[in-house]
Amino acid sequence: MDVTKRLIPENKKTKYLTKLEQIPQLTDAERQDLQKVNDKFVFRTNDYYQSLIDWSNPNDPIKRIIMPDVQELNEWGELDASNEEKYTKVRGLEHKYTSTALLLVNEVCAAYCRFCFRKRLFMNENDEVTKDISDGLEYIKNSKEINNVLLTGGDPLVMSTSKLEPIIKQLREISHVKIIRIGTKIPAFNPFRILNDPSLLEMFKTYSTDEKKIYIMAHFNHPRELTPEAIDGLNLLMKSGVTLVNQTPLVQGVNDDPKVLAELFSKLSYIGVSPYYVFLCRPTLGNETYSVPVERGYEIFEESRTQCSGLAKRARLVMSHESGKIEVLGMTQDQILFKYLRAANKKDNARLMAFYRNPEACWFDDYQEASEDFSVFSLNEAAKCL
Predict the structure, then answer these.
(1) What is the DSSP track for 228-276?
(2) Rounded to an integer, what distance in angstroms lies between the CA atom of residue 179 and that of residue 227?
(3) Residue from 268, 258, 274 nearest 307 by CA
(4) Torsion angle, CA of 337/338/339/342, rounded to 10 degrees?
(5) Residue 94 forms beta bridges with which residues?
(6) CA gap 102, 66 in Å, rounded
(7) Residue-by-residue DSSP string for 133-152
(8) Alpha-carbon distance 287 to 252, whole Å?
(9) Angle at 197 between CA 194 and CA 202, to 5 degrees
(10) How open is the CA angle 320-325-328, to the nearest 5 degrees?
(11) What whole-number distance in Å separates Cα of residue 95 and Cα of residue 146?
């Protein structure tokens, strides 16, 4: 059966919820406590995603993803934990790695993950995002080394197709931009955005060409998000010609369990969506309760991969650090090994680093600060040791 014909006529519309009073499962006492969190960090969900919560389970992982937690008020972390401001070249554009640029095209999401690392964008004082991206496009045109552009924010697929398409079209007119990526959690938060908009799929068919693909960087954190509607949406996206991959942070109380993570990897691979990155949570303000220590995270990640086929175990465990994208490579009894997959300083690309283990470490900086006795060596130096 053609899922487009089956689902689009129903024209299911998602109702957005932005007030705790709209969540009937909360008690008055819970609303009062959680309002303090809402006063600091924005709350937004929708009726579809709320329907996935098992309210009989106080530790339900979907609830954990979307509902506020009083522990978010703990003083821990920074709003811009990876210092993205440092790499902002013009308003709305970041250029950290030579060949990649980020365009912040939107400051709204279909719903807000509680562990978001860009929650600063959703605060009143934010001025990093601009609706006028002409300066960003001009910067990309003049930077011939940029061959791929990531549209992010916020969530670009929250935008109407009529507003998103001109951005895609202008990027396609820049000859040296070969890949356009869209970071989005819409397939998980609101698959009806895909199912009920044929113009979105037609736009992808137009601009995701045989030689220049559009990549959708999906964001499924837990296997229960892969509902029939979500799977239908993913399949329509693939039929429209885009390439789909998935990335997720490792979140305490959501997917910090090898069986859960393995199930997520496997289900994605069955659908045809490649697991791409698993991120260790950045030390962002309010996110202590969601963070998983690096070494425990590595153990969870590797144990989950032992339960998967080769197609399901293609993800890498990484940190998006100020200095670059750092992969957690392995551990011995005494040491932990890291490698720069991408580095802000080109001299650090592919650099290998060894530190003495620190079970309390939640971020790369915790190792730098914990010990002066560590070894850092390049791949050429490592080869001499073999």
Answers:
(1) HHHHHHHHHHHHTT-EEEEEEEE-TTTT-SHHHHHHHHHHHHHHT-EEE
(2) 29
(3) 258
(4) 170
(5) 88, 102
(6) 25
(7) -HHHHHHHHT-TT--EEEEE
(8) 10
(9) 95
(10) 95
(11) 9
Does position 213 have pLDDT exceeding 70, yes or no?
yes
Residue 314 CB coordination number (10 Å)? 16
How many helices (H) and strands (E) the chain has is answered by: 14, 15
Q: 83 with 131: CB under 8 angstroms?
A: no
* Whole-angstrom distance, CA of residue 195 vs CA of residue 275: 23
The 3-state DSSP class for residue 205 equals helix
Judge whether 212 and 172 are in contact, CB under 8 Å. Answer: yes
| Closest of 164, 229, 155, 189 to residue 15, by C-alpha | 189
Q: Which amino acid is at 173?
A: E
Helix intervals (H) in 56-133: 61-66
Average pLDDT over residues 180-184: 98
Q: Quick one: tokens of 179? A: 């890949």
pLDDT in tens, 230-282: 999 999 999 999 999 999 999 999 999 999 999 999 999 999 999 999 999 99
Residue 260 token pair: 């859960």
Chain centre to alpha carbon of residue 19: 25
Q: Name the residue type at position 91.
A: R
The token pair at 298 is 């590595």
Q: What is residue 78's DSSP assignment?
A: B
Question: Which long-range contacts link 21-30 to residues 24+ away (Cβ below 8 Å)?
Answer: 23/50, 23/67, 25/53, 25/55
Q: Nearest 5 degrees, angle CA 296-CA 356-CA 308? A: 35
